[in-house]
Amino acid sequence: MADAVYVGNAGVDAPLERGWLLGHFMPPASARHSTEVEIKWGVHPPGDRRAQWTSGERRTALLVLISGRFRVELPDRTVLLTEQGDYVIWGPGVDHSWYAEQQSVVLTVRWPSVPGYAVPLS
After folding, report:
1. What pLDDT score was predicted for residue 118?
2. With a cut of 50, which residues of the chain have pLDDT below it?
3. This protein's superkingdom (predicted)?
């Protein structure tokens, strides 16, 4: 049961997995493996944007602004997060994209954790 507990630091661990701390893509024996939920610690420089919109979204997502100024683009509206703690939730069927207007840190929680949404590495 050595892998039943994991202690880490989001700033250190997140860059190793494209920001992700928890999800189906972590090693199966790890406490960080989950098919129920994904958690991401996103650190975004000014001007950073998602490389492409999602397509066929099947998950629910919660995105919380930790610091900065961060824009979430949805099919029918744009949400601007400006104050620490501002958040937006969207459900299955709602595709999205995002843009960091300033250096930003955001925490994203998505559920369930399913394969097929990673933007290919350039």
Report:
1. 62
2. 1-2
3. Bacteria
Q: In which domain, by residue range, is 27 found?
A: 2-111
Query: Rounded to whole angstroms, how far apart are CA atoms 113 and 104?
Result: 24
Q: Which two tokens stand for residue 82?
A: 């400006």
What is the CATH classification number for the domain harbouring 33? 2.60.120.10
A 10 A CB-CB count for 76 gives 5
Q: Which residues of 13-51 are buried (b: 16+ CB within 10 A; e: fewer)?
A: ebeeeebbbbbbebeeeebbbbeeebbbbbbbeeebeee
Residue 104 near residue 68 (C-beta atoms within 8 A): yes
| Residue 108: predicted pLDDT | 97
In three-state secondary structure terms, 15 is helix
Q: Based on the structure, what is the number of domains in the chain? A: 1
pTM of structure: 0.90
